[in-house]
Amino acid sequence: MTRSVAILAFDQMEALDFAGPYEVLTTANRVARRQGAPQPFAVVSVAETPIIRARAGLTILVDHQLREVREVQVIVVPGGVTSDVENSAGVRAWLTSVAPCAEIVASVCTGVFVLAAFGIVSDHEVTTHWEDVDDLVVRYPNLRVRRDVRWVDQGDIVTSAGISAGVDMSLHLVARLVSEELAVSTARQMDYDWRR
Hints:
Elements: E1 3-8, H1 15-34, E2 41-47, E3 51-53, E4 59-61, E5 64-65, E6 74-77, H2 83-86, H3 89-98, E7 104-107, H4 111-117, E8 125-126, H5 133-139, E9 144-145, E10 151-153, E11 157-160, H6 165-177, H7 180-189
Parallel strand pairs: 1-2, 1-6, 2-5, 6-7, 7-11, 8-9
Antiparallel strand pairs: 3-4, 10-11
Helix pairs in contact: 1-6, 1-7, 6-7
């Protein structure tokens, strides 16, 4: 089974929050094909506008604008400077319409603030970048915020700590959705020391 995956992109997102999950999932596809298995993920990037500028100026041409993607099985929301995206009516409308039908909604780093702002997480156990934990606790006191973990899996909601932890979380998603063997092989292909 090939699962559709949409990675949200927005101005001032952290580049590795976006690129880390993208690299893990697309590398898992290459490794699976090499092993003679079907491609497990169909990965696309989505945004309000066709071009976004990540933090530090990296420009990304996205695959689809939000209105073009109506159904998806896995959603990944990166972090970065999220204040504008938290207040975006367009992102809110898209995310709150597609998230309820998704198998998994995942966030990297401060992406969890977007999920909380839109009510996708309310009293869940979550995590975020160590630097933003206290702010998350203050702004969303009903969340059960975990410190010093790489990711938290709550079934349909999976959140990760900061930046590089999104790679660890994405490998966990490969293990959970496909197999531990594929996750280990993907980490090996990436020459990445996976922290389970």
